Amino acid sequence: MSYATRRWSESPKLEVAKVPGPARIDEPAQAASEPRFAEVRQAHLRQLQPVLRTDAEKLSEIGRRIRAEGRVTDVRKDRSDNAVELKSLFVSDRVLSGDLQNHYAEYARAKERLRKNVSDQEEEFHKATLLVMGELSLPPGAEHRRREVALSFLEKCLEKGPGMTLTMRPDGYQYTARGRLRGYDGTATVAEDERAAFDAFTSFLPDADVAAHCESLKKRAAGISANAKQLSTNALGLAQAMTLPGECTYTKRE
Hints:
Helix 5 runs antiparallel to helix 8 and helix 6 crosses helix 7. The protein is mostly helical. The N terminus is likely disordered. Strands 1-2-3 form a 3-stranded antiparallel β-sheet. It has 8 helices and 3 strands.
């Protein structure tokens, strides 16, 4: 009897449920995927390198134009055409240019700031041209030269050229306006409208508003030139790098 009592009074041993451990990582498969992932990144880097090199060329061209003219686009072209050209100067690839910010964020931000400054320069140049045109005094026969005179004044104001000149030479007069030369072979006469345009140019006295625009344009042009040169160098440096920083949809692990 005592034996039976002792047997049933003992606490039964509890069965401890086994908790499943984490799934075992297939290390060989993971190791094999790393080279493939690295190759994807290198392939994408090879896609971006020519975009950066084209950027460098375009940025260098922006700097060259701003140093020569004080603006980037051609004043002889329609403003809508210039807007299209200006956009193209900052987009080297329709698809991949937007991806540069994912890998070269600082460069992309600097390029966007430059684009904004160039756009501001174009707009202020246009406003200054209209302002000068409105203040010029020209006779009816030279009215068609109003824009030419205004642009010549801004050329001189921005220290990008003499603007407009009329020089007496041994063989006659030489007329220069916006880089266009016209000689008068063996004669001392000059076209009436050109003489009037030259007189308007030399007699024009800018007011405080025009002078302020000139100073603003000169200052911004100098900044654009320096920044475009630096960014062009930076773009070439990034294009020569052997590794790709950052992530994007092209490099995301599946």
